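pasting for ref. prot 1 ->
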Amino acid sequence: MDLDSLYRGFAEEAFRVLRNGGYVAFSHPTYVDSLDWFLNAGFELVINGLQYVHGGLTRLIYVFRKPNQCRAIS
């Protein structure tokens, strides 16, 4: 499975199993652009930022919220 499919599948499954109003935090390498995957799944972005790990290594961090009134994923 490629990385794109893995992260996209995670976003969709997290949306499916999370309660309305629930949160998910997600961290990944900066070369991966996952924001649209979570937004397209139905999540709302709460906050994002960078986590310095060491040297030139940083991670993107997102916190998403599943809306209280959410749409079904098609």
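and prot 2 ->
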Amino acid sequence: MNFKMVLVANRVALFVVYFWFGLLKVIGLSPATGLVTDLAHATLPFVEADKFIVLFGIFECLVGLMWLWPKLARMAFWFTIFHLITTFLPTIFLPDAAWSQFFTPSLVGQYIIKNLVILASIFTLYFASDQSHFNSRI
């Protein structure tokens, strides 16, 4: 597999995850609804959680779609960084949901920590969008 195929695989994977999970929020079938509702109450008490979840789902769908177009990679990168920051918030604001005990993530915590893989993927795509960051050996 050549490097271009690696980039395509990353783009498609990000699209699938973001669009699918976002769509589940929009249509009211997301298993993360309770967590997102609790987080919205803890961090944005002035916003209706139901509306926030739908808007957040739409945002996720748009981010997913953006990853399909290489010209949008830099913008998608920053939107994804924002999204990842929000997904790490339960580890601070909802510690009972994210941690079973010290340094032992719950299932929710594991779900959050796996976002480090997404972070690595988006850095790859971000720097690949500016070929000057790569030398001829890659």
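The radius of gyration is 16 Å.
Residues 3-26 form the longest helix (24 residues).
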